[in-house]
TrEMBL record:
Domain Lcl C-terminal: 47-168
Pfam families: Lcl_C
Signal peptide positions (record): 1-22
UniProt protein name: Lcl C-terminal domain-containing protein
Organism: Terasakiispira papahanaumokuakeensis
Keyword Chaperone: no
Keyword Signal: yes
Entry keywords, A to Z: Signal
InterPro entries tied to this protein: Lcl_C
Taxonomic lineage: Bacteria, Pseudomonadati, Pseudomonadota, Gammaproteobacteria, Oceanospirillales
Length: 176
């Protein structure tokens, strides 16, 4: 399959917003900054560059204070990942390709992501591919994904089993 290369940096608006965590609070005592991310003890990472809150653990693993992500990332079809995101509630969803690619750290390789913030990246024979919900233009049967081992973008059909990381907007109130 042809590799899809993302040329140049993706543009994101920088919004001045305070993250609302899963419990609806903005507790500074439970937060710390790692690179550009603000992480909390609930296993979430706020990115002020994109105004998004990410789950630090891949689907299939759970955050445990003091231990990080426990378990192994699940391999899911895109449909199964989207269903699990809806089940998680509170606005969690599978990210777009631009959102997902914003996690790629071009100064890192193998993996090409900050593993202090996202500690459960596991390499397989296929790399570490994670779903987005964005179809490849002109090839609607293919959906973009990011391989976090190489930082490359490619496309797969929805039935392939890949990992997924959930995201939500920091602007919404999860209590609504």
């Amino acid at each position: 399959m042809k590799k899809w290369t993302v040329l140049g940096p993706l543009l994101f608006s920088c919004l001045n917003a305070n993250p609302l965590w899963a419990d609806g609070t903005q507790s500074q005592a439970q937060e710390r900054t790692i690179d550009r991310f603000v992480v909390n003890q609930a296993g979430e990472a706020f990115d002020p560059k994109t105004n998004l809150i990410w789950r630090r653990c891949s689907m299939g693993t759970t955050w445990q204070a003091g231990s990080g992500c426990v378990g192994s990332p699940a391999s899911l079809s895109l449909e199964a990942a989207q269903h699990a995101a809806r089940q998680a509630g509170e606005g969690w969803r599978v990210p777009t390709i631009d959102e997902l690619y914003s996690l790629v750290d071009e100064d890192r390789e193998n993996p090409a992501i900050n593993t202090t913030v996202f500690p459960d990246i596991t390499a397989t024979s296929e790399g570490a591919p994670y779903w987005s919900v964005t179809p490849v233009q002109g090839m609607p049967r293919l959906i973009f994904f990011v391989d976090f081992m190489s930082g490359q973008v490619d496309g797969h059909t929805q039935g392939f089993a890949l990992a997924a990381r959930l995201v939500r907007s920091a602007e919404q109130n999860p209590q609504n």
